[in-house]
Design a protein that fits this description.
Length: 483
């Protein structure tokens, strides 16, 4: 095999190996935190059969109730998911593959599996999505980093694994098929196109596809969509037509489906004010960063490197248009989730769930910290000694991984939302230190619980948490009716 072929093979094998390691670690992590995501797999199964109607699923034991459903034409009409279609679309290949295998006599169909709840399929698909996101961030890092190819591969692998095991990618995005995992994958693909366009501007024409798909997956991604659009209009006018065509290729079918299902170009979930308003804006702004139960930098202190990377890029005069898009998106996302969500703490979740979508952008922003500084760079003289810097980064990484290990494996981290009182009824608990949610799993072990009792395999961890009345919760919660 020639050296060129070996290099080409390695360029695929390394990200594939990263994805495989991440998938194996995530799919075997026992916690499953199903809530609003419970309609996603049934939606994908309906799509496989050419429909969006979920009436067949509502009669399944684990899908009973009206939570997350929308009926536009009376009691006998079609029933649709009230949540975005994007996660269901990404699940279609997996669900279709399972159904094809079932027809060939291998295993059970998706509908048969859903008789016992969606948790197993959700965790499977969500783990695949996060594994693919880690591989994409490996490629992003490989493009951005400088130095020898060997060093770039090593650092890019470390970056991808840090994302996968040191952030909410592990404790939130792969624990159920929330909107956040697919959102991160699509934003990472947009980021990959953007950084590669630095050397080949023609690629900007492809950017509209992942950016529009990210919006279809989660409405808060309107922010990066607008930020990327301004960047294209200002810096890449020649590619603007291709970019707009990419947007239209996703947006037109999206609006047509909405007109058919919801009678409007946007479903109620996407409409301005549809999620309400938060009156405690200052508390939310601070809490989303440093709350002991929802603080981004409390649960993932390694993401401090994203801030440090932005500072270093500015000091080295390398903060370009892509960086402006990234940080505009991060800051405005922070403001939006702090002002428009009445339950800014994200309801029952582990850590800063509503901030999860921005993790790939913060990981990208950390890359300048990992770059070797030119010997002539005046900022080197003001930098920390190398051993101190390496030690600090190691501590941040270890703490982050230790926190998210709990969220992926210990049920006490999720039960914290209910015990001793429901956090939705007493939101001030997000500031509680007895114990803080970030240490709830370890506090349980210190109190005499065994890791075996904490690591419950076989469904939503909510099934192992007492409800407000002391009775066990159902596996897939079902309450409330969407208008």
């Amino acid at each position: 095999m020639t050296s060129r072929r070996q290099a080409a093979l390695a360029s695929w094998l390394v990200p594939a190996a990263v994805a495989l390691v991440v998938f194996a670690g995530h799919v075997r992590s026992p916690n499953v935190t199903i809530a609003d995501s419970q309609r996603t797999i049934p939606l994908a199964e309906s799509m496989v059969h050419g429909s969006l109607d979920l009436r067949w699923a509502v009669v399944l034991p684990a899908q009973e109730g009206t939570h997350g459903l929308y009926r536009a034409t009376g009691d006998e009409g079609p029933v649709y998911s009230s949540y975005p279609l994007g996660p269901g679309l990404l699940a279609v290949p997996v669900v279709a593959g399972i159904d094809l295998l079932a027809k060939a006599g291998v295993g059970r169909s998706a509908r048969d599996r859903l008789q016992h709840g969606s948790w197993a399929l959700e965790r499977l698909v969500a783990s695949i999505v996060v594994a693919l996101t880690a591989a994409v961030l490996y490629l992003v890092s490989l493009v951005v980093l400088t130095g020898s190819l060997r060093r770039r591969r090593l650092v890019a692998t470390a970056v991808a694994l840090t994302f996968a095991f040191g952030t909410g990618a592990w404790s939130t995005a792969s624990r159920a098929l929330w909107q956040h995992g697919p959102s991160m994958l699509l934003l990472s693909l947009a980021l990959l196109v953007a950084v590669r366009s630095r050397s080949d501007p023609r690629l900007v024409a492809l950017l509209g596809l992942p950016v529009a798909a990210a919006y279809v997956t989660r409405p808060t991604n309107l922010i990066p969509l607008l930020a990327f659009s301004v960047w294209v209009a200002v810096c890449h006018r020649r590619q603007a037509l291709g970019y707009l065509l990419g947007l239209a290729a996703i947006a037109v079918p999206f609006m047509l489906v909405n007109l058919h299902s919801y009678g409007a170009v946007l479903s109620p979930y996407y409409r301005p004010g549809g999620q309400g308003r938060n009156a405690q804006v200052v508390e939310a702004l601070v809490g989303n960063l440093v709350s002991p139960a929802r603080g981004l930098f409390v649960f993932s202190p390694v993401l401090f490197l994203g801030v440090a990377g932005a500072v270093r890029a500015v000091r080295r005069h390398r903060f370009d248009g892509v960086d402006v898009v990234v940080w505009t998106s991060v800051v405005l996302h922070w403001v939006v989730i702090s002002t428009t969500a009445p339950d800014w703490w994200g309801g029952h979740s582990f850590g800063p769930r509503l901030f999860t979508d921005m993790i790939p952008f913060l990981v990208y922003s950390a890359l300048p910290v990992l770059q070797p500084a030119p010997a002539t760079d005046a900022t080197v003289r003001r930098s920390w000694p190398r051993p101190v810097a390496i030690s600090a980064v190691t501590v941040l990484l270890v703490v982050s991984m230790a926190v998210h290990f709990q969220g992926a494996t210990m049920r006490s981290t999720w039960c914290w939302n209910d015990e001793p009182v429901d956090v939705d009824e007493q939101p001030s608990r997000v500031w509680s230190l007895s114990p803080p949610q970030a240490l709830a799993g370890y506090a349980s072990l210190a109190g005499g619980a065994s890791f075996a009792s904490e690591s419950v395999e076989g469904g939503s961890v909510m099934a192992g948490c007492p409800g407000p009345s002391g009775a066990p919760r159902p596996q897939d919660p079902a309450s409330g009716v969407d208008p």
